[in-house]
Amino acid sequence: MNTILFPTGPCVVALVVVAMSYDLHARRIPNWLVATALIAALPIEIVANGLPIGPMWWLTGALTGGLLFVPGYLIRMLGAGDVKLMAAVGALLGPRGALEAVMAATVAGGVIAFVALLQKRRLRRGVASAMSILITMSADDTPQRERARPAVESAVGSLPYGIAIAIGSVIAIAVNA
Q1: Whole-number pLDDT of residue 67
Q2: Which of 69, 83, 95, 175 is the most buried (most CB within 10 A)?
């Protein structure tokens, strides 16, 4: 088990709660919040893991969290703020915690999207749009990929993914507590 030391858990929870509230109200995650978290994560990692290991965990955690969300950003399903927030969470949790948070956030995001489709009574259109995205992602034709995202947005609408990141991060902390 990968235990998360004391200052890290509360810092991650504070970060994702503030980010989630911004995402709910403004549909944006501010850069100052993510930058502050990234800067604060380095000394936390150094204190938690020591000097040679701490900075490496900080960097690999940030890269793990951020890079795993880049494909979603590239197909325009996630915003840049979501990717940067996940990188900051990864910097705080380290590479293994980042991986766990990404997996839990992905599941939470799927559940949120499914519930949104059920509430709007658009489940059939949402499933058709998801299948369309899977098919067009394999195509090498960029215009087809550009048409895929509006199809999903018309079915689900824009979802504040900061909620899913917050849920996934809290789950990753709870699993490692």
Answers
A1: 96
A2: 69
